[in-house]
Amino acid sequence: MSESMPTRTLADAGGVDHGAVARRSRTWGWWFVAEHRIRAMRSYVFSWVGLGIGEPFLYIVGLGFGLGMLVDANQGEQGVDGVPYIVFVAPALALAAAMQTAAQENTYGVFGGFKWFPMFFSMGGTPISAAHIVLGFQLSVLVRVLLPLTAFAVVMIVLQLGTVGGALVLIGIGLLLATAFGFAVMSWVSTQTDDRGQLSFIERFVVVPLTLFSGTYFPLETLPLLLQWIGWISPLWHAVELGRTALYGAAIEPMMLLVHVGYLVAIAVVCCLLSIRTFAKRLDK
Amino acid sequence: MIEATGLRKQYGDFTAVDGIDFAIEPGEAFGFLGPNGAGKSTTMRMIAATSTRSAGDLRVLGFDPETHGPEVRAQLGIVPQADQLDEELRVVDNLIVYGRYFGLPLDYVKRRSEELLEFAQLTEKRTARVDGLSGGMKRRLTIARGLINAPKAMLLDEPTTGLDPQARHVLWDRLFRLKEEGTTLVLTTHYMDEAEQLCDRLVVIDKGTIVAEGSPAALIREYSTREVLEVRFGSARNAQAAEAMAGIGQRIEVLPDRVLVYDHDGEAAMSAVHERGLSPITSLVRRSSLEDVFLRLTGRSLIE
Amino acid sequence: MSELLLEAPAPTVRGPLRGIYAGNTRSVVARGLRVIARNNWLIVVTGFFEPVFYLLSMGIGLGALIGGVEFYGTEVPYAAYIAPALMAVSAMNGAVYDSTMNVFFKMNYAKLYQQMLSTSLGPLDVALGEILLALFRGLLYASGFMLVTTLMGLNLAWTAVLAIPAALVIAFAFASFGMAITSYMKTFQHLDYVWVVMMPMFLLSATFFPIEVYPQGVQWVIQALPLWHGVDMIRQLTTGLVQPSILLHLAYFAVMILVGLVFTTARLRALFLR
């Protein structure tokens, strides 16, 4: 349709420049995808805010304080890692929550997007590309993860666990972890076309063991060597090491700093590329 | 065998079924014909003892479904509108497990399942997953499932809605066989052709009340003419053309997309239209159907 | 096909249960076992691992930091302290998962109960059947976990054997209640509320540390909730430090089971036979 002669029918209400639409989607497609998901989230926001504020409070005050009484009584003056147990465990609890949320969204959101409410296919029918869908989806997950992370940070600041700056840096580390872990889950889930229960294995055999064996509730060195390797490959452990340094200045070698950040970034990039490839393949049929 | 007097169902302020009377005899195929929301499914659920009535009397196979739900349900075969198959089980297991719900012995249920698979033409799909079946196959499996307890009557709620024409004919063929064997069939439908094909007797139901009752042929004789002429002049001109056609045939109905002329001789009516200098875009002479009966009774068409 | 006709027997249950119970619970259980056998035995079996992971992580890792905990006046190694709690939690989780998430799906998506209740089954057959299935799963997990804790030397007395039936009692109580509550849920978000209740209960019911660390008021609230009774009951059995209060715990669960069953049957009737 040329612009000088707008025909007004139901199919073309006039004034849509299809060339411009295509160009805009090429650049901003990822944002349209994220926007779609964030809009959809608004109906959940109340239950999430409720859970999001309750959870950190419970974990830090309930678990951190309760266990802290036992641990500190036994460990005496030096505490764990040179600080009271509650300070030691707080950043790990926040990061574990970020990882769990990212895993959940990427499991059911990605699988559902192909199968239960096939919005990826309807997006694929518009000028938006597979890469945009992958990036936009993950961006919306980060928005979602921001909620528990912020809540944890607020609780830490209020209870004066570590420094205020550290609590804020912790949010950034949480987002990096969520990106890496989110893409990792996505790259596998997107290859699954039928749910015969294997989706729940992510929670059962990846998320739960990682949460428990990544030096979250106790220093990784406490475990026998036989179990320590889980921590070394766990994105959560790398993030937790960074988090402890940020929150209360736990000692760390500069080299290790690089290793931790590099590991998380590498996982994010590789799994993102894998996801894009899988998405492109599945949308092209 | 099923008898209702003054049967009512109220959901809050909304009256789904508004005092209906009917009696279904053993061995007959009885239909409830009406548009969506007329109260057909609600009536079926009350018969099936899965919904309690608000007022009136209902006897199903000698029992009051309100007080003897399990006894009533034990003797009925149910084919719900949505198939409600057990998607976690294979095809044959759907039949076996359902039969066990009736407390039937396992070896009996197993033998009968094979027989019913054959009847439903699903023997090859015996161990297939239910979610992979086509719509027609699922419906046939649902009918087979409804037969597992050798029911005295089958209740079929819109048995062919959503199926393609070929699948509908396969299904009708199966239902005919049941009818021939003397099974009492009670079905709801909003397709007049289905009602004409399957029902010995039917009630036309609209807004929760019965507006007519009889055999399909008798209803057509009473409420319509032998033939109908359908003419189309384009959506803007139908009403205007209908005015110009006044007096042709016994009765004229104007629908948004066409004009219907009721007459015992459709071709004659057609010539009359041409004589008045009107030239429709398309025209068609057909036999009267239940659709016409419904239109006459309610001023609306069945499928809107 | 007419050579094979057998009429379905009319249900013979009389008395107050007439119309809600057909005495055919076994067909509901049989359906569940068939689904497990054909489809998802792997999912069921792997559910056993979660409490074991917790036990290994917390028992070994935290155990090294904490040492022992006092229970009814006796010092108990930390791993032996949390093992019974994890058993109670897993009995609760399994039962709640089965009676909320699974039941919600069957009610609203698979329409399984509509199918069942259009036969001669009554709502109580369905409720009991589903609960028995949850218990079967609970029995599997409890026995497996018992085996692990025995191998790790965490059962300190012969009374530990009784922990398996005790876990079943806990599962029964939660399952019979969970199904009734699920019947009120309309959307998936409502399921979130279940975890809002479960999570604090899991963290605070003397699972990982004694409730004495909390002020008296908080302690009373925790002691009113069912999981604390479950944890304390199983812990008394596995440590051999059995107290008279175990009778109180059992009474608590007996009431919960009874109320839950009546409640669930009434709800199923209201939902599907109205």
UniProtKB/TrEMBL annotation, chain A:
<feature type="transmembrane region" description="Helical">
    <location>
        <begin position="142"/>
        <end position="161"/>
    </location>
</feature>
<keyword id="KW-0813">Transport</keyword>
<feature type="transmembrane region" description="Helical">
    <location>
        <begin position="83"/>
        <end position="103"/>
    </location>
</feature>
<feature type="transmembrane region" description="Helical">
    <location>
        <begin position="45"/>
        <end position="71"/>
    </location>
</feature>
<keyword id="KW-0472">Membrane</keyword>
<keyword id="KW-1133">Transmembrane helix</keyword>
<dbReference type="Pfam" id="PF01061">
    <property type="entry name" value="ABC2_membrane"/>
</dbReference>
<feature type="domain" description="ABC transmembrane type-2">
    <location>
        <begin position="47"/>
        <end position="282"/>
    </location>
</feature>
<dbReference type="GO" id="GO:0140359">
    <property type="term" value="F:ABC-type transporter activity"/>
</dbReference>
<dbReference type="InterPro" id="IPR000412">
    <property type="entry name" value="ABC_2_transport"/>
</dbReference>
<dbReference type="GO" id="GO:0046677">
    <property type="term" value="P:response to antibiotic"/>
</dbReference>
<keyword id="KW-1003">Cell membrane</keyword>
<dbReference type="InterPro" id="IPR047817">
    <property type="entry name" value="ABC2_TM_bact-type"/>
</dbReference>
<comment type="similarity">
    <text>Belongs to the ABC-2 integral membrane protein family.</text>
</comment>
<dbReference type="GO" id="GO:0043190">
    <property type="term" value="C:ATP-binding cassette (ABC) transporter complex"/>
</dbReference>
From TrEMBL, chain B:
<dbReference type="InterPro" id="IPR027417">
    <property type="entry name" value="P-loop_NTPase"/>
</dbReference>
<protein>
    <submittedName>
        <fullName>ABC transporter</fullName>
    </submittedName>
</protein>
<keyword id="KW-1278">Translocase</keyword>
<dbReference type="InterPro" id="IPR017871">
    <property type="entry name" value="ABC_transporter-like_CS"/>
</dbReference>
<keyword id="KW-1003">Cell membrane</keyword>
<feature type="domain" description="ABC transporter">
    <location>
        <begin position="2"/>
        <end position="232"/>
    </location>
</feature>
<keyword id="KW-0547">Nucleotide-binding</keyword>
<dbReference type="GO" id="GO:0005886">
    <property type="term" value="C:plasma membrane"/>
</dbReference>
<dbReference type="GO" id="GO:0016887">
    <property type="term" value="F:ATP hydrolysis activity"/>
</dbReference>
<dbReference type="GO" id="GO:0046677">
    <property type="term" value="P:response to antibiotic"/>
</dbReference>
<keyword id="KW-0067">ATP-binding</keyword>
<dbReference type="InterPro" id="IPR003593">
    <property type="entry name" value="AAA+_ATPase"/>
</dbReference>
<keyword id="KW-0472">Membrane</keyword>
<dbReference type="GO" id="GO:0005524">
    <property type="term" value="F:ATP binding"/>
</dbReference>
<keyword id="KW-0046">Antibiotic resistance</keyword>
From TrEMBL, chain C:
<feature type="transmembrane region" description="Helical">
    <location>
        <begin position="156"/>
        <end position="181"/>
    </location>
</feature>
<protein>
    <recommendedName>
        <fullName>Transport permease protein</fullName>
    </recommendedName>
</protein>
<keyword id="KW-1003">Cell membrane</keyword>
<feature type="transmembrane region" description="Helical">
    <location>
        <begin position="246"/>
        <end position="266"/>
    </location>
</feature>
<keyword id="KW-1133">Transmembrane helix</keyword>
<dbReference type="GO" id="GO:0046677">
    <property type="term" value="P:response to antibiotic"/>
</dbReference>
<dbReference type="InterPro" id="IPR013525">
    <property type="entry name" value="ABC2_TM"/>
</dbReference>
<dbReference type="Pfam" id="PF01061">
    <property type="entry name" value="ABC2_membrane"/>
</dbReference>
<keyword id="KW-0813">Transport</keyword>
<feature type="domain" description="ABC transmembrane type-2">
    <location>
        <begin position="42"/>
        <end position="271"/>
    </location>
</feature>
<feature type="transmembrane region" description="Helical">
    <location>
        <begin position="78"/>
        <end position="96"/>
    </location>
</feature>
<dbReference type="GO" id="GO:0140359">
    <property type="term" value="F:ABC-type transporter activity"/>
</dbReference>
<dbReference type="GO" id="GO:0043190">
    <property type="term" value="C:ATP-binding cassette (ABC) transporter complex"/>
</dbReference>
<comment type="similarity">
    <text>Belongs to the ABC-2 integral membrane protein family.</text>
</comment>
<feature type="transmembrane region" description="Helical">
    <location>
        <begin position="117"/>
        <end position="136"/>
    </location>
</feature>
